[in-house]
């Protein structure tokens, strides 16, 4: 995705009116939270087991949808409220700049990539970095939201934001401070997946810096198909030219020596050329 950096405004500019995609995500997360709590009140963990991201379940039962659905599952009301608040604070302005479609693409690609990285690094394999136990469930949209934070810092680096809603600082320093805090806290065991937060920041940064987007990938795919078709047409034209030259040679031979001078292979070439002409 191409992005522009906006330097002109340094005023506080957070949130604003609810945009269409922000509404959709808040409604989706809230509805999922309510359904999950109803299951929980009935003594069932079905919602968490089915839609939270548990690496061992994904690997054993191929529950691949968990790589995306975990974003809509939240543990408690404060988990939900905080994530939706930050989503509104930083996501609205990004959506107004990008448009709803590109905003949702960014959000879901970031979230799914975070889920995929968590699945890999919490798989129990002997990797340098471990995201947790393969039996530990990942829930919440904070990974994708941290991707939005990275995007906000890149696009509005001079915008003033409030750290902890109290201390004003530029967005670029705010995002770097959040990243440093998450990295520091990742060394201490807790119920928070700092790995997911850091992964979201990294993926959001790379998505914009490397200009990843679905349209670009689709254009690349269609361009490869077009070039392949051009090569095939060129090859067909070359084959037709060679066949025409061969037929001209055979006809010259007939004029000079008669039909009886033709070999069996030359007769087959004339027969195929005749059939092609009839079919056109």
From TrEMBL:
Pfam (any one): Rhomboid
CC annotations in GO: membrane
Topology class, membrane: Multi-pass membrane protein
Any GO molecular function: serine-type endopeptidase activity
Domain Peptidase S54 rhomboid: 64-207
SUPFAM superfamilies attached to this UniProt entry: Rhomboid-like
Protein name, as recorded: Uncharacterized protein
Organism field: Candidatus Glassbacteria bacterium RIFCSPLOWO2_12_FULL_58_11
